[in-house]
Request: fold
Amino acid sequence: MIDSSKHLGKRKQLAELLESKGIKDRAVLSAIKSIPRHLFLDSSFEDHAYQDKAFPIAADQTISQPYTVAFQTELLAVKANDKILEIGTGSGYQTAVLLFLKARVYTIERQNELFKKTSLFFKKIGYKPKKMIFGDGYKGLVEEAPFDSIIVTAGAPFVPKALLAQLKIGGRLVIPVGDKTQIMTLFTRTSATSFEKKEFGDFSFVPLLENKS
Ligand code: SAH
Reply:
């Protein structure tokens, strides 16, 4: 697993590109500059790792486009030590961004192949989420709730009630909602029973799937 000055140079350019596309959060931009995205991809895609594009990973899934990762992370407004639930571990790249921001990360993946692959990769590279869970993100993670924020990295046909219920007061849920394309949506919990909703334009994700059984 090699990281070189050539990779670093490309990452800097990628961070500059994301800034020109409207990402403002300095900590998010430095995460993009620091995390070796090429190691999260199959080696055949390594040369393309610092393009602002999604790429295929195992189990017919995709690593999200860097702009999307940065955009969702900016909406989360992460603070050090935040307890964050991520739905859709995938390649682990978004997880790595949250860890870089010093969050305590719980991450759920429903494809066993990806769950195993990314768990192994994290051990090798030394990234330490609090927990990696093989399971169904629609249910959230009730035994660890409440969370400071929850991020969904797959397109949700509807907003799962369990996820809203597992937010702290003041907590944020960032979720792309829709079938073919998704509207990036931010819910902020304003009291035990109320939520504020804001929408942020169209994105395109692989679907958040319900249990196979
Ligand atoms: N953050 C990841 C995105 C991967 S794509 C990355 O940047 O690599 C979305 C992921 O969500 C896929 O890995 C998919 O298997 C997973 N997924 C889909 N439905 C899910 C569910 N119900 N629970 C947990 N993970 C789910």
Remarks:
- The chain has one domain: 5-203.
- Helices lie at 5-20, 26-34, 66-76, 93-100, 112-125, 161-165.
- The radius of gyration is 16 Å.
